[in-house]
Design brief:
This protein is an alpha/beta fold. It has one domain: 3-Layer(aba) Sandwich (Rossmann fold), CATH 3.40.50.2300. The chain has a 4-stranded parallel beta sheet. α1 links the parallel β1 and β2.
């Protein structure tokens, strides 16, 4: 009888409507896992605190910003975060303080609350902890937001990678 492989480490990235920031974070983070050969050991997804865009693709400007940096966000479909996401996830990553507050309000207990972190808190060089919402901004703002997300996602991945590798 052989031992089964450990469950993947599961991360969910959360923003407001799940069409700009959190899909970017999911796609970028997943690309780091794929590049490191750990895609079978790390799973990521994204969700929104609101239900305005459920079922929709990512904002076109999000898709374009991702494509300019070599990422493919075409598979994304927006969904709303539910309390069941706490059960399915090892880490719940908020893109700004407003999302963090909502998530902490939805947490059923300390176990749920302990899973919540701000994405930018993983980037030691970050000057701000909130990733700004580019929705009402220019295409250039989408690129700036993506650059912030890339830096913080890289730092998050580097923090998780040694523990994931040791569990494999």
């Amino acid at each position: 009888m052989t031992a089964s492989a450990p469950e993947p480490f599961r991360v969910v990235f959360v923003c407001s409507g799940n069409i700009c920031r959190s899909p970017m974070a999911d796609v970028v983070f997943r690309s780091f896992a794929d590049a490191a050969g750990l895609s079978g050991h790390i799973a990521s997804t994204s969700a929104g605190t609101g239900d305005w865009h459920v079922g929709e693709r990512a904002d076109q400007r999000t898709l374009e910003a991702l494509a300019r940096r070599g990422y493919d966000g075409s598979r994304h479909r927006a969904r709303q975060f539910t309390r069941a996401d706490f059960d399915r996830s090892d880490l719940v990553v908020a893109l700004d303080h407003s999302h963090e507050r909502v998530l902490r309000g939805w947490a059923r207990d300390d176990t749920d609350a302990d899973k919540i972190a701000l994405l930018m808190s993983f980037d030691a060089g970050a000057k701000v902890l909130d990733v700004p919402d580019p929705y009402y901004g220019s295409p250039e703002m989408f690129d700036e937001v993506l650059a912030m997300i890339e830096g913080a996602s890289r730092a998050l991945f580097r923090q998780l990678e040694p523990a994931i590798r040791s569990a494999v």
